[in-house]
Automatic annotation (TrEMBL):
Keyword hit for Phosphoprotein: no
Domain Isopropylmalate dehydrogenase-like: 6-373
Official protein name in the record: Isopropylmalate dehydrogenase-like domain-containing protein
Organism the protein comes from: Roridomyces roridus
Pfam families for the chain: Iso_dh (PF00180)
UniProtKB keywords: Magnesium, Manganese, Metal-binding, NAD, Oxidoreductase
Organism ancestry: Eukaryota, Fungi, Dikarya, Basidiomycota, Agaricomycotina
MF terms (GO), sorted A to Z: magnesium ion binding; NAD binding; oxidoreductase activity, acting on the CH-OH group of donors, NAD or NADP as acceptor
Cofactor(s) required, per the database record: Mn(2+); Mg(2+)
Family affiliation: Belongs to the isocitrate and isopropylmalate dehydrogenases family.
């Protein structure tokens, strides 16, 4: 009998709505084709429009209620008439922390039939094949700090933005990153820091990295980069990188750069994982709501499809056992790993045939790309 997974979709704003609809179509095609699993979708309208109407995105208790689902599929958040820090702090950031989604995994590679702006990758697209592991629960996005306005002189207003790094938070993301590197072809982990200028949290980050590295000695190669030098290395020597681990802010920025170097931010996926599987994980393309092209039928749905494939792959391990780090691995529900592979192959076939949106240099709209991917899945 087919196993049912309860998925909650939060399309959010702008093209988040367009691409979530496309992702549901693709996931529905996948379940029909494979027949061993089903998705039961609920949809929540936690959008900027709702925020303007009623004063909140998620209702009270709404984020807690997400715990009953097997996974969360998220579109995009943000609209010009709501300050971005409100939309982020009312929804996406509290979802990640409430549901223990401390590992944000962002793979990047160049899809067939697409062109990287890196000239070196024209001859060898496999030179760019990275996974960025982003610390997703603390650091620069801790939300601590405040503003002290000056009633006498506006120029004397003081604001602080406090980064919080905890030993527990650092250790667990490094272990997750080393475990990820173990699964990768080059088995290389690059740790990104800024410990020359930031002398407290980043120095602790460095020290704990070398402690955890000892556990993986001989199994994973590793090195360390300052974040500014890392941007240069990504552009100049992409083939020298494999798995990358960085703080919440650094990895947020580096993953946008990575996506652009692979051809378009429109193709880039992300998984917000609770590696213990106590709570549902959340899957979302890394791009934002793109108000300039929202509702026009031209958004690139590939980042959404790749995120959907990552969700299927994650759900495939639903019955797995945890390793000594509490990271649940293996499992294998029905043939869901094959289904995830099938979706990724369908995406690659479609881009290779030139069915691409404008950001990738093509002429196709969201629907044409979606229909083409569904057809490939069925073939
Ligand atoms: N689909 C992802 C999205 O809406 N991103 C908007 C954004 O700015 N996210 C910040 C973050 O991922 O921390």
């Amino acid at each position: 009998m087919a196993r049912t997974f309860n998925i909650v979709c939060i399309p959010g704003d702008g093209i988040g709505v367009d691409i979530t609809e496309a992702a549901v179509q693709v996931l529905t095609t996948l379940e029909k084709t494979f027949g061993t699993f089903n998705f039961k979708f609920d949809t929540l309208d936690w959008s900027s429009k709702k925020y303007r109407e009623r004063g909140y995105y998620a209702p009270e208790g709404g984020i807690e209620a997400l715990k009953k689902y097997d996974a969360i599929y998220f579109g995009a958040v943000g609209w010009p008439d709501v300050p971005d820090h409100i939309s982020l702090w009312q929804m996406i950031l509290p979802i990640r922390t409430t549901l223990n989604q401390y590992a944000n995994v962002r793979p990047t590679r160049i899809l067939p039939g697409t062109v990287s702006p890196l000239s070196g990758c024209a001859a060898d697209p496999s030179a760019l094949d990275w996974v960025i592991v982003r610390e997703n629960s603390e650091g620069e996005y801790s939300g601590h700090g405040g503003v002290t306005p000056s009633s006498a002189h506006a120029a004397h207003t003081v604001a602080t933005e406090v980064s919080i790094f905890t030993r527990a938070g650092i250790e667990r993301i490094f272990r997750f990153a080393f475990e990820t590197a173990l699964t990768r072809p080059r088995k290389l982990l690059t740790m990104v820091t800024k410990s020359n200028a930031q002398r407290h949290g980043m120095v602790l980050w460095d020290a704990i990295f070398y402690e955890v590295a000892k556990e993986y000695e001989g199994r994973v190669k590793y090195d360390k980069m300052l974040v500014d030098a890392m941007t240069v290395r990504m552009v100049m020597r992409p083939q020298s990188l494999d798995t990358i681990v960085a703080t919440n802010l650094h990895a947020d920025i580096l993953s946008d750069l990575a996506a652009a170097l692979s051809g378009s931010i429109g193709i880039a996926p992300s998984s917000n994982l609770d590696p213990t599987r106590e709570f549902p994980s959340m899957f979302e393309p890394i791009h934002g709501s793109a108000p300039d092209i929202a509702g026009q039928g031209i958004a690139n749905p590939i980042g959404a499809f790749w995120s959907a494939a990552e969700m299927v792959r994650w759900l495939a391990g639903a019955d797995g056992a945890s390793n000594s780090e509490g990271i649940v691995q293996g499992g294998g529900v029905g043939n869901m790993v094959q289904a995830a592979d099938c979706l990724m192959q369908a995406i690659a076939n479609v881009t290779e045939k030139g069915v691409k949106t404008r950001d990738l240099g093509g002429q196709s709209g969201t629907k044409a790309v979606t229909d083409a991917v569904c057809e490939e899945i069925g073939n």
